[in-house]
Every structure is written in structure tokens, then in C-alpha cells.
Amino acid sequence: MAGRAQPSGPAGSGGGAPGLLPLLLLLLSAAAIIPRGDGQNLVTEDVTVVEGEVATISCRVKNSDDSVIQLLNPNRQTIYFRDFRPLKDSRFQLVNFSNSELRVSLTNVSISDEGRYFCQLYTDPPQEIYTTITVLVPPRNLVIDIQKETAVEGEEIELNCTAMASRPATTIRWFKGNKELTGKSEVEQWSDMYTVTSQLLLKVGREDDGVPVICLVDHPAVKDLQTQRYLEVMYKPQVRVSQNYPLQGLTREGEPLELTCTAFGKPQPTDMRWLRVDDEMPQHVVVSGSNLLISNLNKTDNGTYRCEASNAVGKSHADYMLFVYDPPTTIPPPTTTTTTTTTIPTTITGTPVPLTASAEALPTVQLSNASLAFQPDSRAGEEGAIRSVDHAVVGGVVAVVVFAMLCLLIILGRYFARHKGTYFTHEAKGADDAADADTAIINAEGGQNNSEEKKEYFI
Fold it and tell me: I need a surface site. Which of 65, 371, 413, 430 has the fewest CB within 10 A?
């Protein structure tokens, strides 16, 4: 080709000067058989779009040299030649056209639009690059199917969640409340679509009643797609016995006792009764519905009292163990205390020793030669029980101190009494053998000559 032709219109336009149409057809035919090159000067990106939305295809030239840019569909039909659209499909719209870019939008995308779209640049040699449009299809329906609408506590139920006609296949996740559970999924393919079913086996308890089970879909075409079903679980009664009287107190002999039985279940319990375990119910016990009353407790009432409740699911009970304690002992009122001043005359070896002591209700005590006489000055106690007890303690301490002093004085008196009498000195030594007094004086050791030198000291 001696020179590069610059066509003035797209192939198949039917317009232009005579002879232009064969030239255009020749160029398009040549383009149809041009192998894909490296596309060194062309840039484009793959497009992922959700079914029904808009896909935008961009063919860009890095270094523009005023070459012709055109866009072809997967069937090699020209969508745009420069800014002209030969293809009669109004869903394709020109967004931007310049020497360096051709940008086209495709509205209301469907699965049939998926495939490779080619960008061509008429250079020497020609260049081509393709972009791939991927169409995502969200699930059409999301349904949870429960094997049994109403389950019984402890039973295992089966739940199935189905996501239909999606592309690609969805991922299904299970939640019970805020806790994620694990299910088992199966995938079925229909043409270009996928249907996913996930199975969940769940053992239910009374705590699951009214809790939502959620089926959530992970899919690139949709966010926060989920559905849920609320569990309905039947369970046998839950029974509790509470003590109304005495409140937080001991059950004592002669006092009343009142118990109340409460039961919750699904369905609500209709039958409730009181009994005494391993014994007959005392005749003086009054049962009124859920209440049990004993007006006057005694030791024969000791035992275990049981409240039973039942519904369509089953029967439950709660026990109350009664132990009757002795009645409280009567505490006498505090006694009135008096304060007395007592003079205690004490005679030890003929010497009177006066002692004065202050005591409360001090008794008369006789020890050896000591005599204790009391003349109390009584007055009515006007203080509280605590102050009276303090005075009694002080009086007792004073009495003990006085008694200790008396004992000490008696011991001292006896000690001095034992050390009184006649003392003999060495001057009288040898007088026992003398015939008379004069001889004894003469024979006494030391005699009169030493009488001035020897002295006796008495203490």
C-alpha cells in the first residue's frame, strides 16, 4: 500500500463519494483478519458489571498520531468508527471521542453481552487490543425451608437455604442470632447459571425459642442479601419455689411459713400441685393454687416439700427443704446498778489501817483479823443497759484491787509479827554454867573489859 488511506465514513454507512464504499469495505476486511499485536500504543481495562447495569469500554492511545480508533464487538462487528456508530444498537452510546480516546457505554447489560471487545488502531503496522466484559448475576430468590415449624426441646431439626440462578455460584453462610454456624452446600449448574442449596442441622433448646436463624449470601453482585426464620421451640416447665414469709429469716417453731411456686414453659403449664416427699402432707397445711401456707410451725413439719408442674411436653418439679428451729429465747431486761462507798477498817497486830474503796454492790468479806462493813447509799439507775454494764465492770475491778491490798497488808502484818522477840548476843555465852549471876557476868566471854568494845545494834 503506497499510502495510508483516511476513510471519511464507517463501513456499511452507504454514504460518501463514489468509490469510497469499496475502500472502506477493504479496510474493514483487512481489519477483520489482522492478528492481535502487542498493542504497544493502546491501553484498555477489563470490565465487570452486574446484569442490568452500565458497562463502560475505553480505548486509549498513549502517543496519539491522529490514527483512526474503532471498537468492535465479540462478533467482530464495528460498534464505533471514530465518533460514528455503524451498529444499530441504541444501548451503545458515545461517552468521549478524541484523537487519544474512544469511550463507549453499554446500558442494560445482559448475559449475551459478555465476551471480548476489540480496540483497533490503524497504524503501520495496525494495532489491536481487547477488553473482556464479565456479567455478574445476583441470586434470583433466597428461601429458608424448615423441616418442622415447631420443634421440641432437645430435638434436631433440618433447615435448607436455597439461592437460585446466580452467576457465579454463591456462598451461603448461617447464623443463629450473632453466632455463625456451619452448613453443607450443594451446587447445581443450569446453562450459565448456578443454584446453591445449603443444609443446616440444628439441635434446639429452650433458649432457642424466638431466636432468628439467618441465611446470608456472599456474592460479588450483591451486598447484605439475607433471609431469616424465627425458631419456635416447645419445652417442659421450669419450676421455682420462693419463700414469701419469713423473709430471709429462720423458720422457727410457732411462726408461720408461706411458699409460692412459679412455673414457666411452652406451652404454659396448666397443672400444678404440692406434695411432701416420702411422707404425707400435714393436715394443718393449707394449699391454695400455687401457694402453700403453714400458720404454726412445729418440729413434725420438717421435711421436703415439692411443687410439680406439667404441660404437653413433660413434667418438672422444684423442692423446698423445711427445717424448723427452736423458738427464740427471751433475754431478761438489764438490772439497775448502784454505786456505794465503803470504809474498810483493818486491824493488823493491833494497828488499825483505814482503807476507803468505791464499789458497786460489793459483798461483805471476812479475812483473818479484817472485817468489812457496808452501808450502801442506793439510788435508782436511770441510764441505759450499756452504761450499767460499764459501771458493773468498773466496780468489779475496784473490788478486786481492794481485795488484793487487804491480802498484801495481812501478809506484811504476819511477817512483822514473826520477827518480834528476844535476841541473844555473844556476851551471854557461858552464863548457863555459872552458879550465880555475878559468876555468870565474870565468866561471860569478853567480860566487862570488852563491854565497851562490843555493841549490839538492833534494827
Answer: 65
Alpha carbon 336 to its chain centroid, in Å, reads 58
C-alpha dihedral over 135, 136, 140, 145, to 10 degrees?
Answer: 150
CB count in 10 Å sphere of residue 126: 16
* Cα(215)–Cα(172) distance, integer angstroms: 7
* 3-class secondary-structure state, position 379: coil
Residue 400 C-alpha cell reads as 478486786
Contact status, residue 304 vs residue 279, Cβ threshold 8 Å: no
The neighbouring-strand residues paired with 275 are 306
Pairing of strands 233-245, 151-152: parallel
The label of the residue with cell 464479565 reads 134
Condensed to tens digits (0 to 9), the pLDDT of residues 326-338 reads 988 766 556 554 4
**What is the grid cell recorded at 232?**
419456635
pLDDT of amino acid 459: 43
Q: What's the pLDDT score for residue 407?
A: 92
Instruction: Name the amino acid, one letter, at 217.
Output: V
Q: State if pTM tops 0.70.
A: no
Q: Residue 383: count other Cβ atoms within 10 Å of its Cβ.
A: 13
What pLDDT does residue 303 have? Answer: 96
192, amino acid identity: D
Per-residue DSSP letter, 270 = -
- Strand intervals (E) in 45-155: 47-50, 55-61, 69-72, 78-81, 92-97, 101-106, 115-121, 127-136, 142-146, 151-152
Grid cell, residue 309, equals 408442674
Residue at 403: amino acid letter: F
Q: Where does 323-400 show beta strands of DSSP type E?
A: 340-348, 351-359, 366-367, 370-371
Look at residues 319, 320, 374 and name the one whose alpha carbon lies nearest to residue 345. 374
Q: Evaluate whether 49 touches 138 at the Cβ level (below 8 Å).
A: no
CA 404 to chain centroid, in Å, comes to 66
pLDDT at 332: 56
Rounded-to-integer distance, Cα 362 and Cα 110, Å: 117
Mean pLDDT of 231-236: 96
How do residues 342-360 score in pLDDT, each as one tens digit? 444 433 334 343 433 333 3
CB 303 within 8 A of CB 282: no
Question: Cα(89)–Cα(145) distance, rounded to whole angstroms?
Answer: 43
